[in-house]
Amino acid sequence: MAEKRGAITRLIDYFSDLPSIGRKSAERLAYHVLRMPKAEALAFADAIRAVKENLRPCKTCFNLTEEERCEICTDPRRDQGLLCVVEQVRDLFALEQAGAYRGLYHVLQGKVAPLEGVGPEKLTIDALVERVRQGAFREVIMGTTPNVEGDGTALIVAERLAGLPVALSRLARGLTMGASLEQANRDMLADALSGRQKL
Questions:
Q1: 160-173: b (≥16 Cβ within 10 Å) or e
Q2: Over the Cα atoms of the chain, what is R_g?
Q3: How far is CA 153 from the centre of its chain?
Q4: 142 bridge partner residues
Q5: Helix, strand counts (H, E) of the chain
Q6: How far apart are the first and last CA of the chain?
Q7: Rounded (5°) CA angle 137-143-145
Q8: What is the number of structural domains in the chain?
Q9: Do 79 and 177 belong together in one domain?
Q10: Co-location of 71 and 50 in the same domain
Q11: 176 alpha carbon, distance to own chain's centre
């Protein structure tokens, strides 16, 4: 019995380490897993393993993919002249769910945060500049979070892209200051995209 208790306690601990999951929610999730049929629980565990073992950054845009290039980069129906720069893959997912954007993306894999030791060199800014230099983009949209760090990151990217023959814009301020893209609803994201402004 001690071994089972140890296992369930470890599971509760793992769930409680997840963002926005308190101890009580972690306990409910752990006991839900315990009640699942064995095949379903093992399929859940396999899904977690597959994510960790098979997903990697797309060689072009740094989205997550199981192939060399993601399905967005390889989709010929996407607008090849439009590029939206986002901080994280979850921001890309949020914009895709809004369904109002049909261009390409570039994931910076973070934002410039000097107090946390994250400078521009730790992001994929160099790859972005090279991509824009070699591509046929007519517009680059800054989709960074509307807060001090996100605005600072957008400014650094804009400075690096200055002089290249591409229009720069940013998402409209329909997004609340300090809000993250993943927390915005579909309508807010659609309005922000359609009302984007020149930098």
A1: ebeeeebebbbbee
A2: 20
A3: 15
A4: 85, 170
A5: 7, 7
A6: 63
A7: 160
A8: 2
A9: yes
A10: no
A11: 18
33 by DSSP, 3-state: which?
helix
Domain membership of residue 59 (yes or no) is no
Q: Determine the 3-state secondary structure of 140 from DSSP.
A: strand
Tell the residue number behind the tokens 């570039």, with chain if given.
Answer: 106
Single out the residue in 31, 54, 77 at which a domain terminates.
Answer: 54
Same domain? For 8 and 95 the reply is no
Phi and psi angles of residue 142, each rounded to the nearest 5 degrees, phi first: -85, 115
Q: In this structure, are residues 96 and 111 in contact, taking their beta carbons and an 8 Å threshold? A: no
* DSSP secondary structure of 156-173: HHHHHHTTSS-EEEE--T
What is the tens place of the pLDDT at every residue in 23-42?
Answer: 999 999 999 999 999 999 99
Please give the Cα distance from 10 to 154 (Å, whole number).
41
Answer yes or no: is 68 within a domain.
Answer: yes
Closest CA to 91 of 49, 169, 150: 150
Co-location of 36 and 85 in the same domain? no
Which structure tokens are listed for 101? 């954007």
Yes or no: say if 190 and 100 are a contact pair by the CB < 8 Å rule: yes
Give me the mean pLDDT over the 108-123 stretch.
Answer: 92
pTM score, whole prediction: 0.75
Residue 1 pLDDT > 50, yes or no? Answer: no
Q: Are residues 35 and 92 in the same domain?
A: no
Q: Which amino acid is at 79?
A: D
CA distances from 173 to 87, 137, 188 (A): 17, 23, 10
The answer on 87 and 174 residing in a single domain is: yes
